[in-house]
Design a protein that fits this description.
The protein is mainly α. The protein has helices at about 1-10, 20, 25-55, 80-100, 105-125, 125-145, 150-170, 185-200, 235-265, 270-285, 290-295, 295-315, 320-325; strands at about 65, 70, 220-225, 230. It has a two-stranded antiparallel ribbon. The radius of gyration is 21 Å and the shape is globular.
Length: about 325
């Protein structure tokens, strides 16, 4: 089961066919619209989570509350942390649509999606997720596009983001984002990382086997091995890989990633190529505080669907990509 959760999403890398890449603009706009809807949905769920749960037939009220009218909501893609990582990973696509010369309508939609994406990331109260989103957003603003005539667009995003953040600071309690990294949540994750390293040290070459200790289906979220305690999830994708498949597995994954990067480097359009790098970078940062790429199929599916379009675009020539980019889709 654990192996399938890892392998099945990776196969989505080959999902995008030639007929799909011909409609690249449509899919980029679709991803932008979905992210906007998801951002608005999370903001609404933050204040109405118990109401929505009851509406869906769940009579057990959430314990993940900050105050009587604020919750760390869980959505279909996963926990608040998973949601934050999804928002961060989607930012480069939103910025790509925003900086591209689409219609005024889609410039506005992508701009709104970016702002609400950042607001929703803050409301997840995931410290790593929020600061990662800020880092990725700044990377997109100053690295994704080099054209100097985009200064007005960059300035507008920064001003609106600051304004939006100021509003949610008044409306919501987001103090958790600035409380440091010395609370019980961080300490429990550190103990889980130490436990994962201990498991790796016992089987450094091949690991302990996928799902042998950090099981994917569980009733108790704690784990004890040789008097060492931790969570059932180490909350670090790199530690999880080392502990379960060892150095041999890590080498295989590194080789696979290098092959992927080679293909991404062949993308003919510079801005689209940088967008792919930023998505991988966002996922890599998120891996420091979560194992979602390996053990949460809902999150990894989205990542590999994104990658499939970049992978397919890497086989296009410069003229082919330019023709596809000019395709009009409303």
């Amino acid at each position: 089961y654990a192996i399938l959760i890892l392998i099945i999403p990776i196969n989505l890398l080959f999902l995008c066919k030639r007929k799909d890449i011909n409609n690249l603009n449509f899919f980029l706009k679709l991803f932008t619209a979905i992210c906007l809807i998801y951002s608005l949905g999370y903001i609404f769920a933050t204040s109405n989570y118990d109401f929505l749960s009851k509406l869906m037939g769940n009579t057990i009220y959430s314990r993940s509350f900050i105050s009587s009218d604020q919750h760390r909501a869980k959505l279909m893609i996963g926990s608040a942390i998973t949601v934050a990582n999804y928002f961060t990973m989607s930012l480069p696509i939103l910025f790509y649509v925003y900086f591209r010369r689409y219609s005024i309508r889609w410039n506005a939609i992508s701009l709104i999606s970016i702002i609400f994406n950042l607001i929703a990331s803050a409301l997840t109260l995931s410290r790593l997720g929020f600061f990662s989103s800020i880092l990725i957003a700044m990377s997109c603003i100053f690295f994704q596009i080099e054209s100097k005539n985009k200064f007005a667009k960059r300035f507008l995003i920064i001003i609106l983001a600051i304004l939006g953040f100021s509003i949610i600071m008044i409306r919501y309690d987001i103090g958790r984002l600035f409380m440091g990294f010395h609370d019980t949540s961080v300490l429990s994750r550190l103990s889980s990382i130490y436990l994962g390293i201990y498991i790796f040290q016992k089987n450094p070459l091949f690991g302990s086997g996928m799902g042998s200790h950090f099981t994917r289906l569980y009733t108790d979220n704690s784990l004890k091995i040789d008097d060492l305690y931790g969570l059932i999830d180490p909350h670090n994708v790199y530690v999880l890989i080392l502990s379960e498949i060892g150095l041999i597995g890590l080498i295989i994954i590194i080789l696979f990633i290098l092959c992927l990067f080679y293909r991404l480097s062949q993308i003919p359009d510079k801005m689209f190529r940088k967008t792919s790098y930023l998505i991988v970078f966002a996922a890599a940062i998120s891996g420091i505080g979560g194992s979602h790429l390996v053990n949460e199929i809902s999150y990894s599916i989205v990542f590999w669907i994104y990658m499939s379009f970049f992978y397919s675009a890497s086989y296009l020539g410069v003229r082919e990509f330019e023709e596809i980019s000019k395709n009009k889709c409303t």
